[in-house]
Design brief:
This protein has about 110 residues and is of the alpha+beta class. The chain has four helices and three strands, in the order αβααββα. Helix content is about 65%, strand content about 10%. It is globular.
């Protein structure tokens, strides 16, 4: 087995946590799931819909997102927004992410910019 064989698994693990941070950041402006998929993808964070929708429900259950139904169009859609607790969580996660980034830069000779 080579490192190429295990790379997809490690990338998936790395991106799993960033999906939470990215979703909380992106949903500072209200949005529905499909638009969030597009926003994250445009930013270079590709998340599968089968991963995103359970994540949104979990974040809502944790009080980190709020939601309401938008019935202005022919098909009702759930619109999410980062809650006040979600903002605090996002700040804490971003602080830790920066600390991890700095630590990794210290451990590598090429750093991360």
């Amino acid at each position: 087995m080579t490192w190429n064989d295990t790379l997809p698994t490690h990338l998936q693990e790395l991106r799993r946590g960033t999906a939470v941070v990215a979703s909380l950041a992106a949903l500072r402006s209200p949005g529905h799931g499909y638009r969030l998929l597009q926003t994250l993808g445009d930013a270079g964070i590709n998340v599968d819909a089968n991963t995103l929708y359970p994540l949104l429900r979990r974040l809502e259950d944790q009080g980190l997102l709020t939601s309401e139904w938008d019935t202005t169009e022919s098909r009702p859609r759930k619109v999410y927004r980062t809650s006040a607790d979600g903002e605090q969580m996002l700040d804490a996660l971003l602080t830790d992410l920066e600390a991890v980034r700095t630590a990794i830069a210290t451990l590598t000779d090429r750093g991360i910019s």
